[in-house]
Amino acid sequence: MEAARTYLDDMLESGLQPDAHTYGAFIHGFSEAGKMQMADRYFSEILGSGLEPNDTIYKDLIRGHFKKGNVAKAFSAFICMLARGILLDMKTYNVVIIGLLKNGKMQEAVRIFYELCGKGLLPDVCTCNALMVGMYKEGDADKAIQLYEDMCM
């Protein structure tokens, strides 16, 4: 990542303005490496330069914060995404739901699940499987079985 940062600095020094995809590559890399302070820095640079982050950039940022246990920051990025009018797809909902579940936020995950269903999106196997596993882990086998039965209908 150091070489990439040097490359970005060289771009800026020579008067070239990175686009959102360039910043997005940094956000992805730093998020994967668990360096969320740096990912946040580049996200702020996107916003500060007037560029629009795309859904992939938001997903990387959200996923990275959830991995580090920063539920509030992950959810803040999710809310920011909604406020900017970026359309949420099933992959985005999966990132949020799975992140909430991995951080012990079952009620919030279920609320988001019903929100996506209410918007007419069909949850995929990944979403339902994650919720069922979470329900079983919390000792709520009845809800997991009900979700499974609802999926089969």
UniProtKB/TrEMBL annotation:
Gene3D superfamilies: Tetratricopeptide repeat domain
Organism: Rhamnella rubrinervis
Swiss-Prot/TrEMBL keywords: Repeat
Signal sequence segment: none
Name of one Pfam family that matches: PPR_3
Family: Belongs to the PPR family. P subfamily.
Protein name: Pentatricopeptide repeat-containing protein
Listed transmembrane segments: none
PPR repeat locations: 19-53, 89-123, 124-153
A single GO molecular function term of this UniProt record: mRNA binding
InterPro entries referenced in this protein's UniProt entry, alphabetically: PPR_rpt, TPR-like_helical_dom_sf
Keyword ATP-binding in record: no
